[in-house]
Amino acid sequence: QAQLVESGGGLVQAGESLRLSCVASGRLSFINIMGWYRQAPGKQRELVATINSGGSINYSDSVKGRFTIVGDNAKNTVYLQMNRLKPEDTAVYYCLASRVGMNYWGKGTLVTVSS
């Protein structure tokens, strides 16, 4: 089983930046996708960005050009650099590690963007 711990959330003003980190531990041998999802109050969890073991990256349209996902295999860590934050980016951000047939989730880190 994989364990994921997120950090880096906080309260910022619109236009500012934050960097989220997700450290993975445990059985990581078959993990082939890592990424970030978010859930705003009253809304469903949605994709933010993912990166697979081959380095292919996928972003949601709402964050393209503002957010960057980076994986560091040596540290078992995935980062989400978030620039030009908007109030609509306010959400709990969850880290995902995925292998065939199983998804692992962190407990989330809260990002609040004030206008």
Give the SSE layout.
Elements: E1 2-7, E2 10-13, E3 18-26, E4 33-39, E5 46-52, E6 57-59, E7 67-72, E8 77-82, E9 91-99, E10 102-105, E11 109-114
Parallel strand pairs: 2-11
Antiparallel strand pairs: 1-3, 3-8, 4-5, 4-9, 5-6, 7-8, 9-10, 9-11
Describe it for me?
Helix content is 0%, strand content 58%. The protein has 115 residues and is mainly β. Strands 2, 4, 5, 6, 9, 10 and 11 form a seven-stranded mixed β-sheet that branches. Strands 1-3-8-7 form a four-stranded antiparallel β-sheet, with no helix packed on it. The protein is globular and about 40 Å long. The N and C termini lie far apart (40 Å).
Features:
115 residues; mainly beta; seven-stranded mixed sheet; 11 strands; 58% strand
What is the beta-strand fraction? over 45%
What is the terminal-to-terminal distance? 40 Å
Largest sheet, if any?
A: 7 strands, mixed
Mean pLDDT: 96
Question: Could you state the oligomeric state of the chains shown?
Answer: single chain
Question: Could you give the count of β-strands?
Answer: 11
| Helix/sheet category | mainly beta
The residue fraction in helices comes out at under 10%
User: Which radius of gyration do the C-alpha atoms yield?
Assistant: 13 Å
Shape call: globular
String of helices and strands: EEEEEEEEEEE
Number of helices: 0
